[in-house]
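FORM 12-B: Structure-to-Sequence Request
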């Protein structure tokens, strides 16, 4: 999931600057940028291209989703979406822009396609102030931004049907050689109501939020390892207590305490290794189930399956080392007899 989302972020964030109204927290926000302000930003001498993006919640076929629009004619050569069907994003955007209102087309997210059971060539009725307008799906793209899905129109079509020039956000492509951070600071000073983030800054923010979200997952893994180790030590001590007579007999026959402790540690390490292999196998099956079945059904997302070999190897090694470290004192205690303690006290 992490690799898929990071790849999606890399493909989605390609502009130099991203501008939104201060206080806008998501797709459902009603904060909008006035067209006069947008025109002033577009006329900035450092701006080469400005993509106006709008996204608003709508009810389509009785279900809530999002309707969006973008300047397909402008950004088709620049924006590279991860496409699930329909061809490259540049080709699909150019086709949709060329169709205009005469042959309206749209891009839909993979989540939208799964929720509404549509695909390439499907016709979707878009609710507008003057009634329903049929739109043909020209492409399906991967999107992990929301679970309701989204349908994206060309901005020219959106303006013709909704007649609302306000936008939710802007993506600014600057001229070569222009420093994005400098332009961002200048715009924020000139327009205090804007939140302007550079590509690099927004990527860092998104990755930080993503990692913070999954920090709990890593904490739960550590808790699980600790609980498993505690159970392993308890099991070893229980077995040792049941074999107390056997251990005493071996000691009486001359078996050294260290040798018996080593045998107990190796037995416990074998149990830990078997449990680790079983956990890896069950974890692989669970991962396949989550990626191939649950995520598409619950969220409508298709994830790229990959195994983090280095992470798994490191976790396996850490687990075995921790198991041995936890078993050593337990094994030494189990093989020490009363005579050993009396000898130590007498010494």
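FORM 12-B RESPONSE
SEQUENCE OUT:
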């Amino acid at each position: 999931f992490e690799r898929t989302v990071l790849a999606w972020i890399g493909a989605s964030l390609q502009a130099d600057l991203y501008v939104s109204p201060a206080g806008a927290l998501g797709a459902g926000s009603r904060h909008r940028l006035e067209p006069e302000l947008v025109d002033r930003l577009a006329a900035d001498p450092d701006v080469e291209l400005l993509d106006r993006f709008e996204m608003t919640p709508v009810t389509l076929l009785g279900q809530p989703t999002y309707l969006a629009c973008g300047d397909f004619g402008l950004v088709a050569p620049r924006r590279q979406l991860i496409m699930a069907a329909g061809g490259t994003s540049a080709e699909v955007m150019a086709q949709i822009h060329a169709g205009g209102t005469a042959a309206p087309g749209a891009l839909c997210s993979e989540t939208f396609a799964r929720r509404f059971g549509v695909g390439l060539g499907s016709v979707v009725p878009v609710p507008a102030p003057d009634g329903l307008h049929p739109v043909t799906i020209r492409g399906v793209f991967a999107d992990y931004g929301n679970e309701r899905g989204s349908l994206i129109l060309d901005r020219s079509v959106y303006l013709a049907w909704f007649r609302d020039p306000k936008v939710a956000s802007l993506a600014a492509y600057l001229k070569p050689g222009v420093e994005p951070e400098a332009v961002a600071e200048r715009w924020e000073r000139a327009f205090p109501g804007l939140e302007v983030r550079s590509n690099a800054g927004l990527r860092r923010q998104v990755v930080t939020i993503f990692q913070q979200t999954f920090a709990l997952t890593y904490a739960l893994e550590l808790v699980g390892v600790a609980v498993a180790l505690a159970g392993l030590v308890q099991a070893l001590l229980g077995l040792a207590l049941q074999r107390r007579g056997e251990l005493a007999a071996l000691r009486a026959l001359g078996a050294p305490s260290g040798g018996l402790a080593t045998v107990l540690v190796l037995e416990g390490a074998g149990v830990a290794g078997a449990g680790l292999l079983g956990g890896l196998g069950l974890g692989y099956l669970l991962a396949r189930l989550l990626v191939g079945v649950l995520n598409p059904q619950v969220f409508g997302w298709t994830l790229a399956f990959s195994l983090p070999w280095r992470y798994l190897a490191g976790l396996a090694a850490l687990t075995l080392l921790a198991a041995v470290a936890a078993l050593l004192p337990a094994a030494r205690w189990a093989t020490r007899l009363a005579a050993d303690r009396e000898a130590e006290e007498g010494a």
